């Protein structure tokens, strides 16, 4: 099998054939594209999400905290606690584990998230460190936002620049090889992208503003996230390539290695759909968060428009990060 997430058909078949009990107090249930599940706790809702870090050699603790907290933020609530599992290979040192936990501690302090517990072990089952986290958040009843909530004619917004995570990982993990592509100043800037991966602030702002759906842009990039939102909502979209916010640094790397930046892992950007996109963009910018309207939710099909050419967006396959790493090596 290819490295990366399972393709949509295989994953859907597994989920559909392996359902457990169905409970009425689970308000948002597991499904393709849903970042979180939401549980009814009376006056409040408990929002939960889990994800591993497997594709990064550097900064895995920082990445693990941010990608999981971002999922909670996509429901429009603030994350409050995290559980951490670390599986370390036999060649790990105690200092390696301490270093990862130091990163996790630093990032959770920034986000006001408490480490609730977890599990740590050395095992022959992995050949490099794997970190898996579960994060919980708390919101008022019936206020959580689902991936599946997009409505026809919604504006589609993305925050900050796309590909922050993918660019930051590649430049941090392969600095020596990337020197042929970027200047020293650009390498420093690209490594700094990993300090901008949190979308908690914009998630909470959008939740308070009132939006129809949100989705953290991770594996599969912005086109993968768009496809998942549309599929979950039984709708389509029309988006414009020239409106996608992508830094010059990311574009240089993608051109060099023939990578599609629209399918490159993009934690650090939130995908939001709302009826009043212009106003939300203004609200976000007032809070220091850049945002761009890239298109509209429509009734049928997902379409990417580049110049005068329209292409249907197909289900996400493995992320371009894995292709990029193969080509650099």
Automatic annotation (TrEMBL):
Residues 33-137 form the PurM-like N-terminal domain. Residues 152-302 form the PurM-like C-terminal domain. Belongs to the HypE family. The lineage of its organism: Bacteria, Bacillati, Bacillota, Clostridia, Eubacteriales. It comes from Clostridium scatologenes. Gene3D superfamilies: PurM-like C-terminal domain, PurM-like, N-terminal domain. It comes from the Bacteria. GO terms for biological process: protein maturation. This is AIR synthase related protein domain protein.
